Amino acid sequence: IIYLKLFQEMEDKVTSPEKAEEAKLKARYPHLGQKPGGSDFLRKRLQKGQKYFDSGDYNMAKAKMKNKQLPAAAPDKTEVTGDHIPTPQDLPQRKPSLVASKLAG
Amino acid sequence: MGTLIDKLNNLNKEHADIISTVEFNYSGDLLATGDKGGRVVIFQREQENKGRAHSRGEYNVYSTFQSHEPEFDYLKSLEIEEKINKIRWLPQQNAAHFLLSTNDKTIKLWKISERDKRAEGYNLKDEDGRLRDPFRITALRVPILKPMDLMVEASPRRIFANAHTYHINSISVNSDHETYLSADDLRINLWHLEITDRSFNIVDIKPANMEELTEVITAAEFHPHQCNVFVYSSSKGTIRLCDMRSSALCDRHAKFFEEPEDPSSRSFFSEIISSISDVKFSHSGRYMMTRDYLSVKVWDLNMEGRPVETHQVHEYLRSKLCSLYENDCIFDKFECCWNGSDSAIMTGSYNNFFRMFDRNTRRDVTLEASRENSKPRASLKPRKVCTGGKRKKDEISVDSLDFNKKILHTAWHPMESIIAVAATNNLYIFQDKIN
């Protein structure tokens, strides 16, 4: 009987590469959700798109990406804690998107 | 497939240039591409009577324009990508060309028109447009039309916005040429091409409690001839065919297509790899094709129980699912397409490989879209992936495949043996030359 059980396990691995891969995954991530590949992915998919705290935060992030530095607070401004809160004057203009695609060049 | 001649368009490596959709128009004379940067580039096929044999049917840039811009949803503090998810052409009704392009949230109808004449000899303004003093005009003349260099203009004619809470994955023009559908993860809307402030919701699978969410809509398409019929596919590997004559809200399907699964072979990956990434009706309207992660299936619309054909795209990846899950490749959405006569189907894979299946001869071939491994005007060499054991010369082993080089988008000319293959930010156009 033990011989038959071993044979069955070997068969599973040989005939189902998928099950072998599943075992590998569970070994690496033991806390992986019990529900096979379902709702967690779907919820993540529905929330696709980076969330920002507000539109000021969004513009700051864009500025950071383009200029690699924050707009510096004026030295005589007191009581600034954390990042400088943007005012309309110091928000950088969004650069217009490239009109010419390289595909057309 | 005979001798193939390829023509390449080269690009620099920039994220915004990643091609996100490719589509021929109804005649095949125009080929539109959309990219991650929100731009649309349209190619036009050269006329054949040019005297030079080799320039027959080459595609050159016809028009390029910025379709969508990145936006910010203030209510949800979410960024809305400008990436063009889909382009669909309208059938041509006059000299101008019309297409629909969509990003995650907004669909736009674009008119592409040519201008090759301009009027000269106006009475009230002179040649550079300045108004003339009416008191100085002593004679009347009739303006005449003079030829000018061809100018192709793209203008947005309709903007269909604010109808989708979730991300639009599909648009499909109806055979009535008056309406079209747009589908997001949970809902499908029906629009009239002339009306932008209203759309009808025809499918809604959002559960009352989002905790109970088990599947999403992955693709949708109208039937090519029956204007009341459409299908939508799901992340669980099922397809529902709906008939708009039966009720206004098509939550109850007319047909339900699902292949039975052997419960003993079920694994953690089963549902993920069964998720359908694309669904396309055949030109005949009798069949439809679905693409899941490892295979392409052809279904007879009269048989819901199982597909009539299953073609393995890259079965060797089944033993790599663990790594493909870790690097997210298992969620890649491949598209598929039919040739004009429905005798062959094509879909993409990794390593810039794409696969073609001849339904009649049951032969298949793997080809590569890359500059390094092919020269312009040379035939494409079939490629082979070695799955184990001894690797033959010219074969490539599974572990050497480049999973960053994905071919997700391909298109087939509606009548001729011409295909367009998008490999990241490069577009390849291959033609079959019969000598």
Characterize this entry briefly.
Helices cover 45% and strands 0% of the residues of chain A.
Explain what this protein looks like in three dimensions.
Chain A: Residues 67-105 are annotated as: Disordered. Chain A: It comes from Neotoma lepida (Desert woodrat). Chain A: This is cAMP-regulated phosphoprotein 19. Chain A: Pfam families: Endosulfine (PF04667). The complex is a heterodimer of chains A (105) and B (435). Chain A is 45% helix and 0% strand. Chain A is mainly α. Chain A has a domain at 1-63. In chain A, helix 1 crosses helix 2. Chain A is rod-shaped, with a radius of gyration of 27 Å. With 435 residues, chain B is mainly β. In chain B, strand 8 (86-89) and strand 9 form a beta hairpin. Mean pLDDT of chain B is 92; it is low at 1-13.
Write the layout of secondary structure elements.
The complex is a heterodimer of chains A (105) and B (435).
Chain A (H helix, E strand, L loop, with lengths): L1 H14 L1 H12 L10 H8 L8 H13 L38
Chain B lengths: L2 E7 L9 E6 L5 E6 L3 E7 L13 E8 L4 E3 L4 E3 L5 E4 L7 E6 L4 E14 L23 E17 L9 E4 L5 E5 L3 E6 L2 E10 L12 E6 L6 E6 L4 E5 L11 E3 L12 H5 L3 E4 L5 E5 L3 E6 L8 E4 L8 H6 L9 E3 L5 E5 L4 E6 L5 E5 L15 E3 L8 E3 L11 E4 L5 E6 L2 E8 L2
Parallel strand pairs in B: 28-29
Antiparallel strand pairs in B: 1-32, 2-3, 3-4, 4-5, 6-7, 8-9, 9-10, 10-11, 12-13, 13-14, 14-15, 16-17, 17-18, 18-19, 20-21, 21-22, 22-23, 24-25, 25-26, 26-27, 30-31, 31-32
- Mean pLDDT of chain B equals 92
Strand/helix succession of chain A? HHHH
Sheet/helix structural class of chain B: mainly beta
Rounded to the nearest angstrom, the radius of gyration of chain A is 27 Å
Helix content of chain B: under 10%
Q: Structural class of the secondary structure composition of chain A?
A: mainly alpha
Global geometry of chain A: rod-shaped
Q: Which regions of chain B contain 5 or more consecutive residues with pLDDT less than 50?
A: 1-13
| Oligomeric state of shown chains | heterodimer
The number of helical runs of chain A is: 4
Strand order of the largest sheet of chain B: 1-32-31-30
GO molecular function (chain B): protein phosphatase regulator activity
Family (chain B): Belongs to the phosphatase 2A regulatory subunit B family.
Protein name (chain B): Serine/threonine-protein phosphatase 2A 55 kDa regulatory subunit B
Pfam families (chain B): WD40
